[in-house]
Structure formats: C-alpha cells, structure tokens
Design goal:
By secondary structure, this protein is α+β, with helices and mostly antiparallel strands. It has one domain: PH-domain like, CATH 2.30.29. 16% of the residues lie in helices and 42% in strands. The strands form two sheets. It has a four-stranded antiparallel beta sheet with strand order 1-2-3-4, covered by helices on one side. A three-stranded antiparallel beta sheet has the order 5-6-7, covered by helices on one side.
C-alpha cells in the first residue's frame, strides 16, 4: 500500500469533505486530488490537473465538473454545496487571470 505523501505547502484551497476523493487541493497552477482505493478507502494515488488544461467549469449543486482539453473531464462531488461553490469561484478566478 502506498504511503500518502505530505502535500506541498502554499495551497490556496483545501477540502477533505468530498464523496469519492480523500482530499482536494488547489494551487496557483494545478489541482491535486488524492484518490482512495475502492475497497477500504485508503490512499492510492494523487491525480494532478494543470490549470492550463482546464477549458471550463460547471457547477451543479454539490458537483463540480472540470472540462479538460482532449475530450476529458474530471468530476468532484462535495458533501456541501457551499464548498463546491467556493472551489469553483477560486478556480474561475485563477483561470481568468
């Protein structure tokens, strides 16, 4: 089993109240999501999404969908709608600059 690495300091937004992912961190140039194993929900890997690949952000209540280049997308389901809205606002602000 993989050991969870220490996150890089300097994140702008951090949330551990997600339905599928263990933790989500937003940095200046990327989004990191810790993915668990299916069976016991232990740490498996960290997915990295660079902001230059994000084409759009859609918010539907607790779901945030990132449209990525190359016909890909990433779905994040939060436990609270407020966290999803705050994440999408910060992400839109970083993409817009």
């Amino acid at each position: 089993m993989a050991r969870k690495p220490d996150p890089t300091p300097g994140w702008l937004f951090r949330c551990d109240k997600l339905q599928w992912q263990l933790e989500l961190r937003l940095y200046d140039n990327r989004v990191e999501a810790d993915i668990p194993t299916y069976w016991l929900r232990r740490y498996k890997r960290t997915d990295v999404i660079f902001l230059k690949d994000v084409l759009g952000v859609q918010v539907q209540r607790k779901q945030v969908t990132l449209s990525l280049s190359g016909w890909r997308s990433s779905l994040f389901i939060f436990r609270r709608a407020d966290d999803a809205l705050e994440f999408s606002r910060m992400l839109s602000g970083l993409i817009g600059r």
